[in-house]
Amino acid sequence: MTRVAVVKRVGGRAVALETTLLVHGVPTSESMGLASRLCGVVRASGADPAVVGVVRGVPTVGMTDAELRSMLDAGDVPKANTANLGVLMHRGLDAATTVSATMELAAAAAVMWFATGGLGGVHRGYGEHLDVSSDLGAFTRFPVAVVTSGVKSILDVESTREALETLGVTVVGFRTDRFPAFYRRSSEAGVDARFDDERELAAFVRGEIARTGRGIVVANPIPQEHEIDETDWGRWLGEAEQRAIEAGASGRGVTPAVLGALHEVSGGATLRANLALVEANARLAGRLAVS
Questions:
Q1: Nearest CA among 115, 181, 122 for reference residue 153
Q2: Closest CA to 290 of 72, 87, 46
Q3: Cα–Cα distance between 54 and 89 in angstroms, integer?
Q4: The domain spanning residue 66 has which CATH number?
Q5: H/E element holding 8?
Q6: HSE (CB half, 13 Å, CA atoms) of 218?
Q7: Residue 246, domain member (yes or no)
């Protein structure tokens, strides 16, 4: 486990929440409201929300509203993953943590549960080189259970699922036999096991993390009423990808470019779906944390 010293302002039933979602994943006008809703959902479950980020070089688990507002007002805030986290800390910068960096800091603070939207994964190809998110490797290093609606639909979902299996990462589905694809409730890929009872799932996760010292994917599909129609999704994705290519997006900039374009071409439908699934994941993570 990482030996990074962190500021921890939460109790034993904490649920980590990433700042990349808040800083880069939604329009800035939505960020504070979303943070408030997610924290409220976690508290309503009986757990303690812990917004995770780097505040002037200090890794922090349980950011205050003032710290988050300052980060949002800063404008161009870098994204921290496990590769560049140390550099950003060394330079005393603010940074929004991705899934991998949030897992690292949560593990350092002994926080087992983490709710997010969708994992990063294997990109479908916007260039000649293989592009794989550091999120996947983080599961082999940090004992954190991540409640997620699978992998972002703009990525190669099936290849990402195969990569998780290759890395030995356990993927369990909550009331589903299929690996979700963010805006879509299912994909062609399956899960390692299905759990329908929250208490049984929580007991398995705790025991498995203690046994292996590795992270676990808890796949929670988007609520059915918020799932994006398959035909609409295909049309919107094609247009959004074309916009990202024309804008010259590459590397770490591809995902936010495509997601931003999707929100535009869908008339906000993908943004509304995004918010709904994140809230559902925060609710489930809170319940599991107290089960």
A1: 181
A2: 46
A3: 7
A4: 3.40.1790.10
A5: strand 7-8
A6: 35
A7: yes
How many domains is the chain partitioned into structurally? 1
In a domain, 163, yes or no: yes
Taking CA atoms, 26 is separated from 23, 91, 171, in Å, by: 7, 26, 27
Q: Which residues are catalytic?
A: 18, 152
CB-neighbour burial class of residue 211 (10 A; exposed 0-12, middle 13-18, buried 19+): exposed
Say whether 223 sits in a helix, a strand or coil: coil
Q: Please provide residue 117's backbone torsions phi and psi, each rounded to the nearest 5 degrees.
A: -90, -75
Residue 1 placed within a domain: no
Please give the span between the terminal C-alpha atoms of the chain, in angstroms, as a whole number.
Answer: 25
CB 258 within 8 Å of CB 249: yes
Q: Tally Cβ neighbours within 10 Å of residue 94.
A: 22
Q: pLDDT tens for residues 172-210?
A: 999 999 999 999 999 999 999 999 999 999 999 999 999
- In single-letter form, the type of residue at position 69 comes to R
- Other Cβ atoms less than 10 A from the Cβ of 214: the count is 18
Q: What is the Cα–Cα distance from 209 to 144, expressed in whole angstroms?
A: 8
Q: How far is CA 148 from the centre of its chain?
A: 6
40-76 residue pLDDT tens: 999 999 999 999 999 999 999 999 999 999 999 998 9
Which residues sit opposite 17 in a β-bridge? 51, 115
pLDDT digits (tens, 9 = 90+) for 33-45: 999 999 999 999 9
Tell me if 172 is assigned to some domain.
yes
Q: Which domain holds residue 113?
A: 7-290
